Amino acid sequence: MHDYRSHGFGKYALHYHLLWCPKEGLPIKENKLEQPLSAIIREVCRTSGYELLTLEVQPNFIHVSLSVRPTVAPADAVRTLKSLCTIRLLHLHPELKNYYSVYGSIWKKGYLVSTGKIFNPEVIWQEIDR
Questions:
Q1: What CA–CA distances, in Å, run from 106 to 20, 42, 49, 77?
Q2: How far apart, in whole angstroms, are the C-alpha atoms of residue 107 and residue 99?
Q3: How far apart are CA 78 and CA 85, in angstroms?
Q4: Which of 30, 37, 118, 130 shows the smallest number of beta carbons within 10 Å?
Q5: Which tens digit of pLDDT belongs to each residue from 68-117?
Q6: If we measure between CA atoms, which residue out of 41, 47, 49 comes closest to residue 7?
Q7: Whole-angstrom Cα distance, residue 35 to residue 43?
Q8: The pTM is what?
Q9: CB–CB of 12/53 below 8 Å?
Q10: d(CA 64, CA 81)
């Protein structure tokens, strides 16, 4: 069964799987960025009104599963997460400013959105690698 939520006079059950990738060379493991990035994503979701269902921070991708209001487009959720994560990571880790100045961003362009409760990142990762 769905866990329906209320917004205004409507009910909804929206589940977005969002996946984006860091640029090559971003040292997520080496700089121990997994914990701060996870905390930042949790905080951004909380302040943006996104219900965080699952979170996976890997060296080659970030996977976030959200339940959001119907007024939130997936592209807006990804843009919010990527941009606020960048700002807060640069604030917490000033050494990343050199990386940012060279590459212009810490994330690859683009993202993947999938809907529904079932999601297999390994299959999706093969699609992204093409």
A1: 11, 19, 25, 17
A2: 11
A3: 10
A4: 130
A5: 888 899 999 999 999 999 999 999 988 888 888 888 889 999 888 888 66
A6: 49
A7: 12
A8: 0.83
A9: no
A10: 10
pLDDT value at residue 1: 41
At 100, phi and psi to the nearest 5?
-60, -40
Quick check: 4 pLDDT over 90? no
Domain CATH number, residue 54: 3.30.70.1290
As a whole-number percent, the residues of the chain with pLDDT over 90 amount to 39
CB 56 within 8 A of CB 62: yes
pLDDT the model gives residue 29: 66
**Which residue is associated with the tokens 């997520």?**
28
Which residues, other chains included, contact 112 with Cβ-Cβ below 8 Å and sequence gap of 6+? Answer: 17, 18, 19, 20, 124, 127, 128
CB 50 within 8 A of CB 68: yes
DSSP tag of 107: B
Per DSSP, the three-state class of 72 is coil
Count structural domains, the chain.
1
Query: What letter represents residue 39's amino acid?
Result: A
At 3 the three-state DSSP class reads coil
